[in-house]
Design brief:
The complex is a heterodimer of chains A (114) and B (113).
Chain A: E1 3-7, E2 10-14, E3 19-26, E4 31-38, E5 44-50, E6 56-58, E7 64-68, E8 73-78, E9 87-95, E10 103-104, E11 108-113
Parallel strand pairs in A: 2-11
Antiparallel strand pairs in A: 1-3, 3-8, 4-5, 4-9, 6-7, 7-8, 9-10, 9-11
Chain B: E1 4-7, E2 10-13, E3 19-25, E4 31-38, E5 42-51, E6 54-57, E7 64-66, E8 76-78, E9 87-94, E10 103-104, E11 108-112
Parallel strand pairs in B: 2-11
Antiparallel strand pairs in B: 1-3, 3-8, 4-5, 4-9, 5-6, 7-8, 9-10, 9-11
Classes of the chains: A mainly beta (114), B mainly beta (113).
């Protein structure tokens, strides 16, 4: 069965520090990979996605993620955290023939302190 | 462009009551889905639809019904509310294809007492 694991339910960084949010997936078929962000009391919005091609994907607000097939990982990074990045981040996967049925990880809440 | 609109935003129900959560999208998307969000569990798929008249179950369908009579609307019905259905519910829509962006509504926070 396919699954998504996000390591660390809470991550805290200083403003200006590197952000690293971890995501690993389990699948027997090639996945499509997504990162979504949820700001307080709002719905989810897409940060970035990997489908095929280049394994380093750039998204909005300076975030990027690298698909590493050998490690079954899709970690999210941002070189320098900003206070406005404080939110909950979800890694998700879908699969060919899956009608875009997303399987989500449990989420990582990012706190940014001055 | 309104995107995905969910109503109501908040609701309190008594155990055993029924209600319908509304979801409408104006992007002419074929694919619509309902998720519930619970702390520490991410979002879990309840039901989904790949077009008008076509629905199917997701991971946690028990206690919920859906129908899709138009492309725009995808209501979620709670038949007999239980405290275990206390959650935040999100409706999403996307164009067909497994790698397309899903657009989410603002959510409905439901409390069952």
């Amino acid at each position: 069965a396919q699954s998504v694991t996000q390591l660390g339910s809470h991550v805290s960084v200083s403003e200006g520090a590197l952000v690293l949010l971890r995501c690993n997936y389990s699948s027997s078929v090639p996945p499509y990979l997504f990162w979504y962000v949820q700001y307080p009391n709002q719905g989810l919005q897409l940060l970035l996605k990997y489908t095929t091609g280049a394994t380093l994907v750039k998204g909005i607000n300076g975030f990027e993620a690298e698909f590493k097939k050998s490690e079954t990982s899709f970690h999210l990074t941002k070189p320098s955290a900003h206070m406005s990045d404080a939110a909950e981040y979800f890694c998700a996967v879908s699969f060919s023939g899956g009608y875009n049925k997303l399987i989500f990880g449990a989420g990582t809440r990012l706190a940014v302190h001055p | 462009n309104a995107g995905v609109t969910q109503t109501p935003k908040f609701q309190v129900l008594k155990t055993g009551q029924s209600m319908t959560l509304q979801c409408a999208q104006d992007m002419n998307h074929e694919y619509m889905s309902w998720y519930r969000q619970d702390p520490g569990m991410g979002l879990r798929l309840i039901h989904y639809s790949v077009g008008a008249g076509i629905t199917d179950q997701g991971e946690v369908p028990n206690g919920y019904n859906v129908s899709r009579s138009t492309t725009e609307d995808f209501p979620l019905r709670l038949l007999s509310a239980a405290p275990s259905q206390t959650s935040v519910y999100f409706c999403a829509s996307s164009s067909t294809g497994v790698n397309t962006e899903a657009f989410f509504g603002q959510g409905t926070r439901l409390t069952v007492v």
